[in-house]
Amino acid sequence: MLRTIRHQIWTDTRGLSLYLTAWIVVLAIQIGVIATGPADAPVVPQRFTLDVAAMVMRALVTVVLTVLVTQRDSAIGTTAFWRTRPITPVAMWASKAAWILMWVVLLPAAAIGAVWLAVGLGPSGALYGAALAALDQATIAGIAMMAAAITATPAHFVVAIAAGFAVYMGLVTTLSKLVPRW
Q: CA-to-CA distance for 81 and 65, rounded, in angstroms?
């Protein structure tokens, strides 16, 4: 089974190599932003700084990569992997989880930890920064993987996320009217 998982990870890596290149570029941008530090006099409002843009880009590419690798061998629909190939569902999901862990969680955490160490933060601070990055990435990727697992295509994923966000905002708006102001 481990040979099957390793083979599937390699297949997904080759198949998504263009997206992985974009992922590495996004990580390089964020590492560059961390390494150069904050701008002394921002020309734009504080909420639109380059570091925020780099974090948002990292989060969006995390979602895109997670959805693409999860739906590359869909578990639902007429092209479900268990209908077309002799691979067990456990091996398929283990390979997807390992791929996401390797490329989407550990790679950014290691890169961010290394850059914090390079700019002069102590080992414990760099490890703490890397752990926070890993937790952030794992949270984003976990939610995206769960949503991608129950949708058949990336288009279905976008519609499901948009509908979920609309319901969430409706609930927040409604409930905020019920909570008394202090």
A: 19
User: Given its phi and psi angles, is residue 151 left (phi above 0), alpha (psi -120 to 50 degrees) or beta?
Assistant: beta
User: What tokens were used for 153?
Assistant: 């295509």
pLDDT (tens digit per residue) in 25-49: 999 988 988 888 765 555 555 555 7
Distances (CA, A) of 14 to 52, 103, 118, 146: 30, 13, 31, 23
Of 34, 46, 61, residue with least CA distance to 132:
34
Enter the pTM of the model.
0.79
Q: Which of 116, 154, 153, 156 is nearest to 132 (CA)?
A: 116
In whole angstroms, what is the distance from residue 115 CA to residue 119 CA?
A: 6
